[in-house]
Amino acid sequence: MVYFEKSQPAPNISNTHNSQEVLDRLEKDFCNKCYICEEKEPQNINIEHFISHQGDRQLRLSWNNLFLSCRHCNDIKSTTFDNLLNCTVLSDYVDTSIHYYCQPMPKEKPIFKVLIVSDKAEETKELLEKCFNGEHTAQKALESSSLRSSLLKELRVFQNLLFDYYENQDNEYFLVKIKEHLSKRSAFTAFKRWIIRDNIHLENEFQQYIGNQP
Ligand SMILES: [Zn+2]
């Protein structure tokens, strides 16, 4: 999970949140990613209510309450997780309140660790664990496994770019690619930024690209 700035003013949502205009704006604001798992351009995308509306008209039609998620994460979040870190609020520090780690080896599972004292961070960690590692139903086990495969594939590409950067004299090409991987537009950005933070050499080299930049 990384920070996304919600564009203002709100689109027209006076009657329904389920419009092409709202979807287009959310896709732009969330860079075509599920804000929970950070999968890029997921097959099934949902307009999600960050705080479940449960019939409340104001929550249902509030622009600030509309997020973009994949169906897998949205199903798991449902009405169960209503006290999460908010990735559209800078002061919630979504990508540094939780440590994201996944060893880039076959069949590995991600590990999440809460770094601050916060109920919201604990609940967010619980949700992330269910989305990436959940096996509570056969269907969800399959979807989680598929999500982990996408994550591992992406981390492998990122890892290769880092090696290529140090192994090549003319490394400008690789630097451009690495910067793109560390931007919020990339898939699974939170994991990649933690790869940088976890290594003093990488952090010194790429620290400037792991902030809340566009
Ligand atoms: Zn997702």
How does the SSE layout of this entry go?
Layout: H1 20-29, E1 45-49, H2 57-61, E2 66-70, H3 71-77, E3 98-101, E4 111-114, H4 119-133, H5 138-167, H6 172-182, H7 189-197, H8 200-206
Antiparallel strand pairs: 1-2, 3-4
Helix pairs in contact: 4-5, 5-6
Zinc ion binds at residues 34, 36-37, 39, 69-70, 72-73, 131.
What count of helical segments does DSSP give?
A: 8
Largest sheet strand order = 1-2
Rounded radius of gyration (Å): 17 Å
Low-confidence stretches: none
Number of domains: 1
Alpha carbon gap, first and last residue: 15 Å
Bound molecules: zinc ion
Element order, helices and strands? Answer: HEHEHEEHHHHH
Structural class: mainly alpha
Looking at how many chains there are and whether they match, the oligomeric state comes to: single chain
List keywords for this structure.
mainly alpha; two-stranded antiparallel ribbon; binds zinc ion
Characterise this structure:
Helix content is 44%, strand content 8%. It has 214 residues and is mainly alpha-helical. The protein has one domain (20-209). The strands form two sheets. Strands 1-2 form a two-stranded antiparallel ribbon. Helix 4 (119-133) crosses helix 5 (138-167) and helix 5 (138-167) packs antiparallel against helix 6. The radius of gyration is 17 Å and the shape is globular. The two termini are 15 Å apart. The mean pLDDT is 94. Bound molecules: zinc ion.
